Amino acid sequence: MSSYGHLPPYQAPTEDPRQTHPGTQQPRPKVAPGPPGYQPGGSPYPQNTSNFQQDQYAQTPQNGYGYGATPVQDQGYFSPQGQIPTDDPGSMGGLASQMGGMGLGGETAAVSRPGKKKNRHAYHNIDQPTVAAQAFNQSTGNAAQYVNQDPPQQMSAGQPITPAMNQFPAQVNPPFSPALQSSSQNPGFGAPVQTITTPSGPGVSAQGRVDPEQIPSIPRARDGATQYYLDHVYPTIEQHIPPPGAVPFVAHDQGNSSPKFARLTLNNIPSTSDSLSTTGLPLGLVLQPLASLSFGEQPIPVLDFGDVGPPRCRRCRAYINPFMTFRSGGNKLVCNMCTFPNDVSPEYFAPTDPSGVRVDRAQRPELTTGTVEYLVPKEYWAKEPVGLRWLFVIDVSQDAVSKGFLAAFCDGILAALYGEGDERVSDEDPDGEIPEASRKIPIGSKVGIVTFDKAMHFYNCNDELEQAQMLVMSDIEDPFVPLGSNGLFVDPYKSKSIIVSLLAQLPKLFSQVKNPEPALLPTLESAVSSLSATGGKIVCSLASLPTWGPGRLVLRDKNDLHGIESEKKLFQTDHPGFKKLAGRMVESGVGIDFFIAAPAGRYMDIAAIGHLSAVSGGETYFYPNYVAPRDSLQLSLEIKHTVTRETGYQALMKVRCSNGLQVTSYHGNFLQHTFGADLEFGVIDADKAIGVMFSYDGKLDSKLDAHFQCALLYTTASGERRVRCTNTVAGVSEHAVECMKFIDQEAVVNIMAKEAATRMTERPLKDIRNVLTEKSIDILAGYRKTISGSHPPGQLVLPENLKEFSMYILGLTKTRAYKAGHEPSDRRTHTMRQLKSMSPTELSLFLYPRILPLHSLPPESGFPDPTTGHLVVPPTIRASFSRIEDGGAYLVDDGQICILWLHAHVSPNLLEDLFGPGYTSLQSLDPMLNALPILETHLNAQVRNILAYWGSVRGSKAITIQLARQGLDGSEYEFARMLVEDRNNEAQSYVDWLVNLHRHIQMELSGQRRREDGSGGGISTMGMENAMAGITSLWTGKEG
Ligand SMILES: [Zn+2]
């Protein structure tokens, strides 16, 4: 691993490339004049030319869905089209350098990997976008997935699907603010600055005095962006603020990575630490390196540079990327991270044209694409890469059998490997060859099966056997693996009949044994031993606290520590066995996903068990009240998802950044031995995100851009060793006011959530909530101070890009991780680890669910639009009980569970349309229902289509439904919890929260603020105290 991740000693650059910066000579693409005002530090980015807002959303009539009738917006949302002088025109030349003419000519870039099809990276002309530009979920090939597509009979022109984009009355004379202009490049949907008048004076209840319609609405913002991105591509260089988290979109990689892989909190970065401090914002990057792509997006290029490997900077080891520049006729390669001018090796040399661009640039994806993969030679190997070994470790003890968890888990494995029902038999090939299309896991990957109760059982599933052979290992004090890897790990398609029959027999077999206590730790130690030669992934089920054998766990949470200082002990483990095993897993290139059922909500010590998945890069699926008939579908779908999602193993990650910045901390689920070391992952998958925080070790040059590169070295499931590079660029500005136009609030919230999760084991929960509150005040007050507007003090001013920020933070303080009041430690710990690894999409839904009324669905909703082919997605409503109508039916989805809530007076006709003839009352419905039956009714098809669509735009959890009938089901409690705008979860309502924030902002502005996070100082003091870490740490306490 010597060539990976070790920084050579720092040397001063021998030449300052700024003086010969090619950016100044390069041609720029000819584009139509863009909206004025957007020049972050003088960016030469091509401007976005579309006037989408006026075209699409302004002046639309209020839609007719019967909620929240509000004044019609009667003017566009752009400020008058006046030129705004920029502070530093012509700066930020770095970006233009290799980007000039970037892929706009419809050229075809070849992939240099031999044997790969050419033409797979045909770039699109931005003005006439082709494939990718069409849309998300376009009709071609996609509409077919939706059921009952006959054009809905009642569709008429009188029911336009044009949600008004802003529910607020237009300001008559909007006060001048630079932020007004900046919004023109951001399809953020609504007024650039939101002002709310709140009652003044402490102790005044806001409810009833602030119009709840006036406060920023996450559903409106999401729905508007969703509509916009149905027929707009996100061009990664031209646009600077990514779509909101839960909004599906198609990105066009123009050299800057798609926001699916990387999102910066600030897409224009202050040049100094002091300047950043004034904003109160963290400088951070949310990385999701293996994120899945949408239909219509270009696959990630896979490039092979043979034995020499990809070109890298000799000094900082950054990989070649579109922002490195060539000069001296192509002989020198100037690094965009450290500015070192490298010699270009003869095999990589190509001349540059008169403008300084390499003549072969268009054929080289590494010079045009922000996210690429490099096949890497042996020096990057830790061990011989092989196809991924999946080891299913199945709990067969008494609780697993009797709760139906074992049967459901076995069925889930079968569904994951061989598909559902009919699919499972249809892929038999008479010649014994398995067509690749019917494989659920790639060629080369293998599976093994182990079961355990107080002993462990290994299964030889070799395809030469008639049936699986069981080898029992009852010596759990000193276990070994009684089976060579050839018998344990088999091709699941060659051994299909053996595996199918084994998994079908297991529940019956162990129903006669009934050992009550599972011995988890010794079993996992053996499992890791069986994988130590290759690395791999363990998928383990568990249905009761493992109280048997070495490393047994005990009931630690006795309900006596809640709310007191030592409660945090319950959120972590001191168990030496589990801690040691976690380290051994990562070292062996092994990661683990747990599927844990806690029947009747019993204690499972998630802190100790889940520690293994948290450290090894895996995931814990936790079913706190597992009930077999209801939850088995979700279990099965989630096993399928975990096996079929993109998974890499034996991974190392390093993030590099421009001179002047440094990484201060990482937050996520991984192992980092020492500060500054590479992050290590046993496994990493498509759903996992990592937060990276930066501070300044110097001043950034506002004439250059700031660059970030994440390099993930990993082995693919098919057994190839690769590096995935994710390159991200941001502008640099001397003025914080410029930077505030390019805040990505979803990234800010994600970073704050991840850092708070890291601190949960160090600080009392009350401190964590206080810090989140104080940071929100810092950020909003920072905006008020920076943008010296003329708003009266009675107005809460929310910048366009932070409009929904406060609500997300309120949602965060209401999660089970941080909320006040009693909460079992298992739930708190589980939520904490989820927050650490959640992607922006998953987190956004988790903090603010989407709620859809079903009783008032317009007829065309849930079907493809006949002209565009897009699924017509109806508007969602605010998460508040005040929006719930008598007799209503609602779907509530927070990305983890989806509840179908039915009002006591819901129409019998609606019930019959949804559930079938005879189901006319709430009492007649089966509370164990987990999916809708397939009916011929219009409503049933609409809802199934919408659920299928939602299932495609969320994170790692499967979508099934859980009934919550008013007055009948316990899940109503969950429903109430998810109405996050209300006063619940031991926290304020949204309105009261805003009023509270506003009061503190006013006090901060008048110098009277008393901080409650225990830091005892204001922003400036905080900056002083953390001179090394800068403001990037949200925490003034001890640094982790
Ligand atoms: Zn370098």
Automatic annotation (TrEMBL):
One matching Pfam family: Gelsolin
All copies of domain Sec23/Sec24 helical, residue ranges: 744-844
Membrane topology: Peripheral membrane protein
Region Disordered: start-end pairs: 1-90, 180-219
Residue intervals of the Gelsolin-like domain: 872-946
Occurrences of domain Sec23/Sec24 trunk (ranges): 388-641
Comp. bias intervals (Polar residues): 48-63, 72-84
Stretches assigned to the Sec23/Sec24 beta-sandwich domain: 648-730
PANTHER family cross-referenced by the UniProt entry: SEC24-RELATED PROTEIN, SECRETORY 24CD, ISOFORM C
Family, per entry: Belongs to the SEC23/SEC24 family. SEC24 subfamily.
Protein name (database record): Sec23/Sec24 family protein
Upper lineage: Eukaryota, Fungi, Dikarya, Ascomycota, Pezizomycotina
